[in-house]
Amino acid sequence: MKTRHFLLSAAAILFATAANAQEPAVAVDSNFYIFLCLGQSNMEGQGMITAADKAVSDKFQVLNTTECNGGLYKWRTAVPPLAHCQGAGLGPVDYFGRLLIDSIAPHNPDIRIGVVDVAIAGCSIELFDTTGNKDVTYAQKQQSWMTDRIKAYGGRPYLRLLDAAREAQKYGVIKGILLHQGETNNGDQKWPENVKTVYDRLISQLNLKAEEVPLLVGEVVRSERGGSCGSHNNVIAKVPSVIPNSYVVSAENLSMSTADGQNVHFTTDAYRVFGKRYAKTMLRFLGYTIESLPSITVDTTITACDSYKWKANNKKYTSSQKVSQTLVNANDQDSTINLNLIINKSSQTELDPVTVATEYLWPVDGKTYTESQTLTFKGKTANGCDSIVTCKLTVGTTAIGDALAERITIYPNPATDVLNISVPVCATGYGHIAIYTSEGIEVFSTDFVPELETIDVANWSNDIYIVQISDAEGNVWTGKFVKTSK
Question: pTM for this structure?
Fold first, then answer.
């Protein structure tokens, strides 16, 4: 019996050895740094993926956490999207890994970076809290679009993250945890404690040491950038007081995307910079010195008509002023733009109505009109803005323009110093003279009683001027004269 038992045991050992020989153990590479990433839409990444974003070193790897892109728990080069294939885009993790490799490689050319990314747009921190099945209860209450993404992670995203992390530990060493979440928990003062619950559970279940694996928490889009959840940054700031080995990654000067109208997502460029800020925070923890680039100041002048919308801050201005805006470039370098904004105004001039019997030669455009209408001329002001001149014309009624036209004289024409306007005494005893530039800008206006009006034009600009003369009954006569220099 003992012999048979020995033989059976030996056979079992040989079988187990043969089975293990089919899947040889993989040696853990201490130069393969693994980072766990979790959160909601900004961690998913909402940025547009360009060809340049797809050019990734094979030293930067991602472990699939869903069935897409080659299958579950398969390593691949970290070409975005990294979280899943249901709408994820470029996010902070993409440039986090790239900068780590670029920064550490000169010191250790064997370094590789691996990430495990689980993120669901719109989710609460509860979706990652398995205490009393909170995650299951939360998921059951959500709309189908979110539950579909949750199902892609096996129905329980935290457990998928945990399993994937254990798989990743077979190949490398977990060095940190990245979190970007909070918009759905906006203003919740218990949020830091809820984050601690998730972090502590990962540390415990993965047999990690909290002092060796920091938590990096990113701010949400700031209020001054238009972020609708910007006030939650005050809550995020409390995380280091709750989790000792945790760090807040600043979103200062990172632009908000206006593409979807939600006012919670970053722009594509901002995701690139944000990822580098996560990396810099991690590099400091690892003992690398990160030098900040000096800020750049740019002075620029822009001239516009009526209004100007500045892309730097997405604000609209309607008056001349000096404004400043600080942005960050692709190297996370502050760039302050000092804008000298000059707003010139378009002009809209409505000339006095004209009444004629049969036809009217409008001196503004040199055309003859035979029907009643509102005459409109579109030109440009001296500053290049629109200049619109209108005049209400009535055809078919005898008026001053017909009866007295031959008795009204403007001389000398051209004029250099003075202009004389000879006007017959109106039937009502009073009249009005208005003079406009060729752009329709009024430069002279007076009421008159005498038959002769003398006007000093010595300092007027050379131009063709429009003269309108009207009586108290609203009858109008229009003429023009040329102003020249001596």
Answer: 0.70
